[in-house]
Every structure is written in structure tokens, then in C-alpha cells.
Design brief:
It is a single chain. This protein is α+β, with helices and mostly antiparallel strands. Helices cover 35% and strands 22% of the residues. A 6-stranded mixed beta sheet has the order 6-8-5-9-7-10. It has a 4-stranded mixed beta sheet with strand order 1-4-2-3, with helices on one face. Helix 1 packs antiparallel against helix 2, helix 1 packs antiparallel against helix 4 and helix 5 crosses helix 6. The chain is globular, with a radius of gyration of 21 Å.
Length: 339
Amino acid sequence: MASLEGSVVKSLGRRNDIVEPGEFDLIREIFAPLAAGNSAALSLNDDAAILPQRDGWETVVSTDTMVSGVHFLPTENPGAIARRLLRVNLSDIAAMGAEPVGYFLNLSLPSDALANWLTGFAVGLKQDQEDFDVSLLGGDTTSTPGELTLSVTMFAEVPAGQGIQRSTAQPGDIVFVSGVVGDAMLGLQRMKEGVHAADKLVQRFQLPQPRLSLGRALRGVATAMADVSDGLIADLGHICNASGLDVRLMVSDIPLSSGARAAASAGQVSLAGLVSGGDDYELVFAAPRDYLDRVQQVSNNCGVPVTRIGVLVSGSGVVELVDAEGDVITVETPGYRHF
């Protein structure tokens, strides 16, 4: 990583200089090293990549955009922003049960973009490329009079016919969620309050863990799946809407970390807020009741806890959150919405 950082600084100027090279300088000095070793990227010499297709496999494509001030704070570490950008895209791939191949990166840079910011951003990309075995395939750079805007399009593969969709859950299926929910929302709150990035909840927001191994292992087990990006209620609602089903969730069944429970007990956040806050990037999925043992085996093999949280019934896409007395908890905003 040091060699990449050194070459970028040498080419683009001192760390606090405003970046002034042309597009091809950016490609050559910052992004070409991120494509090294992947012949599909054609060394970034062309405006497109050529991806080989394995027999019996299908291509999965997903894209996400992050905008400064909307998805991340302008003061955040650029390396952490880069890693989160890749991970939220990888989470979409995990939700399909697919295996990532590589990605395209688009950047719209303000006129005051600094060399050290791009350097840190590239180093973050390189770190997660190594961690998740993906590489850059291509992309585009442009200037903008607006906010810094980052977009990744991720390419992946899945055995033909085995991609896990949202629309294929069945009445009677059991609903599960991996890990815990609510931590990322609390982490974002703490970041806004100036809490250090080393805080565990802040890290849960900045560096979500895409459940790639779990997603792959659930092929042939899960009938439907989504990642928890907008919030557990909202993303489970996407499955219910697509499959024409309803579900009732007992709030006591929702897996929460000790930090989240403490925050709720102290009145810092409501339980409804924890299950609708988003950015957890866990997997919520449905599986037949007969597959309970298989789900547990997958969980054990992957080292990722999963929790049973509900049962799907015929309906019209309704997700209800219920307290210990059986009363429905009103959730004013079930998940994040841009519009």
C-alpha cells in the first residue's frame, strides 16, 4: 500500500495540494494499480472491460451511489469511505448468494479535491480489494460543481438458476436475520456527536461486514433474501411486498447488541428506531420450516449467528412490530428513504 500512496503523492503533488491533473493522469497514477492482475480490465487502456463467462453461471450486477453529506460525513477518513463504498455493494451481492468478480468506479470530484484525499481513498480501495478478492475493472471520473459523489457497479457470478431473489418466499417460511441490527444507526449518531472512529458502534457504521460466505451458503436453502441497508422493517417489507406476504415480528426476538440494548434502556433510542435505522448490512432471509436444521448448520459453518424472528403468512406486504403484550408498535418511518 505504501508504494501506491507514494506514487500518487509524487504524481499529483503534496498531500494538501488541490488535484489538477487530467482524467488520464488520475487513471494512470491512482486507478491503474487497482486493476493490476485482472486481465478483464485491459490495464484500463480501453473504455470497457471484457469479462469472461463461466459455463453454467449467470452474471449478477449491482450498483450503489454515495454522496457527501448524505451517505458519509465530509470529515470522514477517505480510506474508510472507500471501504464502505465497496462493502455496501458487496452486501447486495451477498444477498443474491453470488460471488464477486470486480467493479466499476465512477467519481464526480469537486474542484477543491485534494491529493491526499484521493490517496487515502485509493489505499482504502486496495485494502478491501485484497480482503474480498475483487479488483477494479474500469470506470469514469468527472468534475462537479456539487458534492463529492462516488458510485460503484459490482459484477458477480452465481450458478445458473441459484440466485436468491426477494419475490420467491412462501407462506409458512420462517424469517431469519444475521448478526445484530441497530448498531450502525447508533454509530452514525455517535459520529455526528464527535465520538472517535475507534468506537465499536462507529465502526459498525463505517465498516459494515458484507455476509458473502453466508449468502453463498444459503443457496438452495433460503427462498428469498435481502440485505439490511434501509432498515430491518423496510428491507423485510421488500421481501413481503415482492412475495405477496405479511409478517409479524416480536420486538423481543430482534437480535440487538449489548450496546444497543443499553442505549434503548437509557432512552437514547427507541426499539422501533433500532429496527428501522438501516446501514447494518446484515442478511434477512426466509427459509422453509423443514430447513431449520440446515439454516443452523449454515450459520455454524460460516461463523455468523442467525436469529429466527418471524413467520410469513399470505398477505399484501405488511410488516408488524409487536410488543410483549401483543400490541402493535407504531413505526412512523420503517426505513431510510431518499425521497
